[in-house]
From TrEMBL:
Keywords carried by this UniProt record: Iron, Metal-binding
InterPro entries reported for this sequence: Pirin (IPR012093), Pirin_N_dom (IPR003829), Quercetinase_C (IPR041602), RmlC-like_jellyroll (IPR014710), RmlC_Cupin_sf (IPR011051)
Domain Pirin N-terminal: 10-119
Similarity comment text for this entry: Belongs to the pirin family.
Native source species: Christiangramia echinicola
Protein name from the UniProt record: Pirin N-terminal domain-containing protein
């Protein structure tokens, strides 16, 4: 087993007043040569956005983008003629492919906290696409919920992206112990503890700490306090 530990306080930061952003990997004006990506996971941003504020229309290309609001809601509009509101408990996926433009704003009266994840696609220049789904009921079950899968290996409830990647969200009570089995021996898992306290592969994690693990078949997790966790399994090359 190989692993890399990313404490919460090691993340890059940018505070623009309306936006307080935290970068797990190099992004915008933050660059760390040791934290450019984890396998094919390129971006994990933890953004706090003031009410009424957000990201104006901007382009993306050849990237699989997953947005997860943890608190508040996102008003989304894109060049594919989608207009949507994505609320906490829901997940949004967008394949940028040949190119898409979109905007994202906090349309609620409370601060928006959202995770944005970018994963390199299996191939470039694919057709852009958009989807979203409400997972709030499934997330009440004290276990991992598969929210994103490859198109070739969809679970009953998951959204798909154009990559051999699997994302799971879970809410756990204190004292819960689980084992996560990787889908492929060439994969690694980036485990981001959104909140709580957990022991993961003999590594202690607290709020917003993360650990990337590879060269293993399975990973044990022991939740010491009530916890919310995100697992991102991706090919390592």
């Amino acid at each position: 087993m190989e692993k890399v530990i990313h404490p919460a306080n090691s993340r890059g930061k940018a505070n623009h007043g309306w936006l307080n952003a935290n970068f797990s990997f190099s992004f915008a004006n933050y660059f760390n040569p040791e934290k450019v990506q984890f396998g094919l996971l390129r971006v994990l941003n933890d953004d706090f956005v003031k009410p009424g504020m957000g990201f104006g229309t901007h382009p993306h290309q050849n990237m699989e983008i997953i947005s997860i609001p943890l608190k508040g809601e996102i008003r989304h509009k894109d060049s594919m003629d989608h207009t949507a509101v994505v609320k906490a408990g829901e997940v949004q996926v967008m394949s940028a492919g040949t190119g898409v433009e979109h905007s994202e704003f906090n349309s609620s009266n409370e601060e928006l906290n959202m995770l944005q994840i970018w994963i390199f696609p299996e191939e470039n220049e694919l057709d852009p696409r958009y989807d979203q789904k409400d997972f709030s009921e499934l997330l009440k079950n004290d276990g991992l919920v598969n929210i994103v899968s490859p198109k070739s290996d969809l679970s009953e409830n998951s959204l798909f992206i154009n990559q051999q990647a699997y994302l799971h969200l879970g809410d756990f009570q204190s004292g819960r112990k689980i084992e996560y089995k990787l889908k492929n021996e060439g994969h690694g898992v980036y485990i981001f503890l959104i909140e709580g306290e957990a022991g993961v592969a003999n590594t202690s994690l607290n709020d917003r700490d993360a650990v990337g693990i590879w060269d293993t078949e399975k990973i044990s997790m022991d939740f010491i306090k009530p916890s919310k966790v995100l697992l991102i399994e991706v090919p390592m090359n």
